[in-house]
Amino acid sequence: ADYDQIELRVMAMFSQDKQMRRIFKNNEDIHAGAAALLYGKPVEEVTSEERQVGKGVNFLTAYGGGAGKLANTTGISLDQAKHMIDMYYKQFSGLTAWKREVVSIGRVRGYVSTISGRRRRLPELLSEDDFLRSRAERQAVNAVVQGSAADICKQAMIDIADVISGTNAQLLVQVHDELIVSIPEDLVDELTPKLMEAMGHGRVIDGVPLVVSCDSAYSWAEAKG
After folding, report:
1. In DSSP terms, which residues pair with 179 in a beta bridge?
2. How far apart are CA 191 and CA 138, in angstroms?
């Protein structure tokens, strides 16, 4: 069972960006939705190549990186990549403002916090070294986004432990935003919806719904397929 675009949903929760919230509220494909805004066309007319650009810029904002990285991962030119990044921050202006706010608060406090209050200290936000300061700025946003996604997933592990208590099911491992559970075949239909509920499927946090996808098979590879 895994969360659908958990980091992007976390960014929408924190930033309250109108465009991101609209896309998630309408259960649209966030990558196609981003591409539609970038290319100025209806989402149903977005091509697979354009969707890849939307996906690339979405994850660039979550994990950090520049136009060169976007160009390398999507196959577009460097000038196109620069243009797309500029367009993205204009279209998702709430996200842009939030990222600046994270860095600003981090400079004042010396740390940034996740959704559960865990802190990451980043003294290099005040560094006079441009490289160190820029890296710390990317780390600040990344720590809030990925750290909060991890908080949600860790709470899900606790709640799943309660759900499967007294059964022969076992929570085996967490892999990023995915949880792997071993369940007796005769309990799959009964426990699957309970596991999804424990992970927060359908729960709305600050206007953004969590979505969980779940598959069962005799091996992890088959379930992922």
Report:
1. 174
2. 39
Task: Print the SS3 string covering the chain.
Answer: CEECCHHHHHHHHHHCCHHHHHHHHCCCCHHHHHHHHHHCCCHHHCCHHHHHHHHHHHHHHHHCCCHHHHHHHHCCCHHHHHHHHHHHHHHCHHHHHHHHHHHHHHHHHCEEECCCCCEEECHHHHCCCHHHHHHHHHHHHHHHHHHHHHHHHHHHHHHHHHHHCCCCCEEEEEECCEEEEECCHHHHHHHHHHHHHHCCCCCEECCEECCEECCCCCCHHHHHC
Residue whose token pair is 């406090």: 109
- Catalytic residue list: 2
Q: What average pLDDT does this structure show over 137-166?
A: 95
In 3D, which of 9, 31, 62, 32 has the Cα closest to residue 207?
Answer: 9
pLDDT digits (tens, 9 = 90+) for 26-80: 998 999 998 998 888 898 999 998 898 888 888 887 776 778 888 887 888 888 8
Neighbours of 163 (CB within 10 A): 17
Q: Which amino acid is at 91?
A: Q
Which residues face 119 on adjacent strands? 113
- pLDDT tens digits for range 10-19: 999 999 999 9
Does the pTM exceed 0.85?
yes
Q: For residue 148, what are the CA distances in angstroms to 9, 23, 40?
A: 10, 20, 32
pLDDT band at residue 221 under the 50/70/90 scheme = confident
